[in-house]
């Protein structure tokens, strides 16, 4: 089955005789019966170890970004700071968006202490009447900020994810509980989204709204809740956003006594975001000192390895191709066990064919385009006058070459 981390147990793998399996250490090593210099033996051992490792591990997905959204319910010094530092370190967080800081002042020193490193960027929004407050902190080696904008209960960070060299717009938001104020915020965010409809957008935070009745338990349903759900889903549809499916807990908010729970925190992304990073996952992390669970968006790409080397059918009809293959295959005889020697010979043949193709054929596409241009030029001329015998011959030759 594709994607497994180890070879299937019901398939026999043919191993060269010079390779012996050491079951006690679960490693492969060269048989002592093979007579070869120690340096070559060591090289072959290293090569074998690399091959076995790749077979066992496969092509593992590479994490491009880890973004955490967290309603901290008051960012005071002490255990919460230590908990955030541990989470940043453990989850390898690239950016954290915090809601309800309830702080009147946040400076760079505080952000560095919170993150546990000095190389950080940060943006914050102060509390209003001891409520709310937003903070964004990010690793400047992962994300390069180009523009920022703040509004009613939100911070927009527009910048580039350095590893992918991809421009994105990230919005950290905290929606008010008041329905009227919430709709004002929605209208502001809609205008924000319309500024760049084709961009890569990610809206995250505590939306203080559920999308389905199943996202709330232990709370008496108010008469207006169905309307709120419908309005929220309509707003998401108008902005053309998709929610990243969650892994882990179903709920992100818990009443201290555990009697009530809801899913209020989420990641909403644009279609272009999903097209760029289809392997996005939303993890609901463990809750600690807040009544909200932190949630983490992890975007990954799968490294399928280097691009395959293509061989064209027309090459086999070319005698010079056969000559290059024959000379390269017979002139290089690397020492070592069969698998290692075959790998080296194929690598050398690949490089030789690349050089031959470049010198022999050149840039095929450019040649085709030039032939087409010459053909069209002659055919355009034939519509206004009679072509000369030389031009007719050239037209025939160009057609055959094409």
Summarize the structure.
36% of the residues lie in helices and 24% in strands.
Structure write-up:
- β1 and β2 form a beta hairpin.
- It contains 10 helices and 18 strands.
- The protein has 402 residues and is α+β, with helices and mostly antiparallel strands.
- The strands form 4 sheets. Strands 5-6-4-3-18-17-13 form a 7-stranded mixed β-sheet, with helices on one face. The protein has a 6-stranded mixed β-sheet with strand order 7-8-9-10-16-12.
- It starts with 18 loop residues before the first strand and ends with a helix.
- It has 3 domains: 1-59, no CATH class; 61-302, 4-Layer Sandwich (Deoxyribonuclease I, Chain A), CATH 3.60.10.10; 364-401, no CATH class.
- It is elongated.
- Mean pLDDT is 80; it is low at 1-37 and 54-58.
- Residues 393-402 have a biased composition (Basic and acidic residues).
- Residues 68-292 form the Endonuclease/exonuclease/phosphatase domain.
- Residues 383-392 have a biased composition (Polar residues).
Give short descriptive properties of this protein:
3 domains; 18 strands; catalytic activity; Deoxyribonuclease I, Chain A; alpha+beta; single chain; 36% helix; Endo/exonu/phosph_ase_sf; Endonuclease/exonuclease/phosphatase domain-containing protein; six-stranded mixed β-sheet; 402 residues; seven-stranded mixed β-sheet; elongated; disordered N terminus; Endo/exonuclease/phosphatase
